[in-house]
Design goal:
Layout (H helix, E strand, L loop, with lengths): L8 H40 L2 H15 L2 H16 L3 H31 L1 H16 L2 H12 L3 H25 L3 H9 L4 H30 L1 H5 L7 H10 L2 H28 L1
Helix pairs in contact: 1-4, 1-6, 1-7, 2-3, 3-12, 4-5, 4-7, 4-9, 5-7, 6-7, 7-9, 8-9, 9-12, 11-12
Length: 276
Amino acid sequence: MFDNYVIPLDRWVSDAVEWLVDNYREFFQMLKWPVERLLNGFDHGLNAAHPAVIIAVVCLAAWRFSGKRLALFSLTAMLLVGYLGLWGETMTTLAMVLSSVVVCAVAGVPLGIMSGRSDRFEAGLRPVLDAMQTTPAFVYLVPIVMLFSVGNVAGVLATIIFALPPIIRLTGLGIRGVHPELVEAALAFGATRRQVLFKVQIPLAMPTILAGLNQTIMMALSMVVIAALIGAGGLGSPVILGLNTLDIGRAVVGGLGIVLMAIVLDRITQSMAQKK
């Protein structure tokens, strides 16, 4: 039945991507430029700073938002990462995660607010977010490489696509979760829709928005190893190198660095959401 005709979707997609590369390379390089500047700024800053400064900032944030136990664990984790010889890779990974999260927050929070306030916009955005979350990351690595070349910037762009949906969904959920009577009361007292948004809806939705930020960070960290396949550095490099050379020790050390960093960032952002 299906032998007579097969839809050549693979050829259509390949032709479309090649057409974009041939005709809009300058446009995609323009999109790449701000991400590259942001990534280079974080990367140079984190790697240039003394490790003691970075450790102190992380421990202070952990103590401020959670308490002494998380601060002590953060200190132990950061020292262990350094003594395992992974400090440079960890700072590069942290720069990639921060760059991805900044872009996701700048783009995702407004989109989430729009979807939370408009049923029509949310209905149109939902299938796009479904496709972004369910498409395997390996599938869009190829067009990312064709459009933006290889390296850390391409890894960040792939991470942005992968990590953007949670913050959009949870921001929209938080806006919709604000009790309608509070919005009606604000409008009854003469507040404009803009004032209702910034003084009522966003403050009350902030714990949910921060939970979305937490999920975005975790998904960005989960892309570290996959991004290393297209030339992104960081903690994914020792894992990929260990896989290629069957060096289980190197792969475990790289994976341990990712786990420690994920735990520290997860606990800090969770504590921020709960305190808020």
